[in-house]
Amino acid sequence: MTVFYLRSNKKSVSSQKKCKMNLSKSAFRRYKVIDELVRNPRRKYPKMNELIDACWEKLDFMPSKETIQKDIANMRLPYPDGFDAPIRWCPTNRGYEYTDPNYALAGVSLRQEELDIITEAVDFIQSLGGTRISHQFNNAVEKLVSATKERKLSTELKRPILQTMVPPVSRGFEHFDLFYQACKERLVVSFVHFSYRKRMFKHCVVHPFLIKEFENRWYLIGYSESHDAIRIFGFDRISEPFLTNKPFKKMETAQMDIYLNDVYGVYPIAGAKKEKIQIEVNRENTQYFQAYPLHESQQIQKHNHGNSTITFELIPSYELARYFLAQGRNIRITSPKWLSDFTNELSHENR
After folding, report:
1. What Rg do the C-alpha atoms of the chain give, in angstroms?
2. Is residue 198 scored above 70 in pLDDT?
3. CATH assignment at residue 80
4. What is the C-alpha separation between 68 and 72, in angstroms, rounded?
5. Distance (Å, rounded) from C-alpha 174 to C-alpha 155?
6. What is the pLDDT, as a whole number, of residue 215?
7. Are 101 and 118 found together in one domain?
8. What is the pLDDT of residue 104?
9. Domain contains 266
10. Contact at 8 Å (CB) between 223 and 230?
């Protein structure tokens, strides 16, 4: 499950707290009733007595004329004290109306800083999707909807009937905000990296351009000064990161796109280039690939007995080779031959 996490800066949070209007639940319910009547196309220009009667009918409460007048005045106030409602008394039709026919209380306009925060969050969610943006985004929305339904049902049922995968927070994720800021604002990061294979620490200065999540693990990708090349660093192996004032080294778009669109996983095989990969798949696994495509370039050609030939346009990666290995005899790599040989060698190494 992909974790979506974004936090606005302290200035934005404090300003939002200051802008929060002092509004009681009962007052807002009356505002909604007034809004509904004023926008009613079948019964335009409601009068004061009609607004009072509607509150009695819908809220089981009889407000005074002064209360409704105060409500209308509060609705007219500009944000954050009110709702910028363009409501007025129309002397010609002797009733209330909106001077803007498209206005609705349920669709109160957001301030620009709020729109920026939402846009930033959506961009972040989409960036996590990589080559599967729509699938990842739809899955996130589906989980939000299902979680809402579950909260509603939880008051009616003694035990849950819905469970989604919630992985524990991984080590290093506490630095997410810093890495995200570095990628967004093109800032150079300095940190200590621990190599599991060499069992040693190394100081790294990195010019990051991408945060990537794969199978619930998080990675920082960028140009490493010590390697003089693009490198991938797992969050779990990074400690003591901080931002520096060093000038940022820009990456070519083609180099960045490799890690965003053309690789299944995180680690491309050294020297590998994007090419056509072809595998032979048995009947059962063909159905699995149909239900869960491995990549947007996936093409399936079915044969008479239900087995199939599946092709991809990808840069071969360690994760792709391991994925094919995990399928055992259900999958056979037919091209390129070097990838088949590489996968077989990887299998011998793992024994």
Report:
1. 29
2. yes
3. 1.10.10.10
4. 6
5. 33
6. 83
7. no
8. 76
9. no
10. yes
Q: In terms of domains, do 99 and 139 share one?
A: no
> Is residue 283 within 8 Å of residue 305, measured between CB atoms?
yes
Residues 138 and 181 in one domain: no
What's the CATH number where 232 sits?
A: 2.30.30
- Write down how long the chain is: 351
Shared domain check, 328 and 280: yes
Count: domains in the chain:
4
Quote the domain boundaries for residue 94.
19-105
Which of 77-86, 117-126, 337-346 has the highest average model confidence (pLDDT)? Answer: 337-346
Beta strand extents in 215-244 (DSSP E only): 217-224, 229-234, 238-243
Does residue 9 surpass a pLDDT of 60?
no
**Residue 6 within a domain:** no
In tens, the pLDDT along 91-126 reads: 998 999 999 887 877 554 445 565 566 556 655 555
DSSP 59-103: HS----HHHHHHHHHHHHSPTTTS----EEEETTTTEEEESSTT-
Q: What is the pLDDT of residue 138?
A: 56
Q: Is residue 84 part of a domain?
A: yes
**Tens digits of residue pLDDT in 237-265:** 999 999 999 999 988 877 777 777 888 98
The answer to whether residue 131 scores a pLDDT higher than 70 is: no
Q: Is 298 in the same domain as 233?
A: no
Tokens read off for 212: 């990537």
Using CA atoms, how far residue 256 sits from 206, 215, 228, 251, 332, in Å, is: 14, 20, 15, 7, 31
Asked if residue 345 and residue 291 are part of one domain, the reply reads yes
* Sheet with strand 299-302: strands edge to edge: 299-302, 308-314, 275-281, 331-335
Helix axes 25-38, 65-76, angle to 10 degrees: 80
- Give the residue from 222, 219, 225 showing the smallest Cα distance to 237: 219
**Mean per-residue pLDDT over the chain, rounded:** 79
| pTM to 2 decimal places | 0.53
Asked which of 53-67, 131-145, 250-264, 269-283 is least confident by mean pLDDT, the reply is 131-145
Q: Is the Cα torsion angle 247, 251, 253, 259 positive or negative in sign?
A: negative
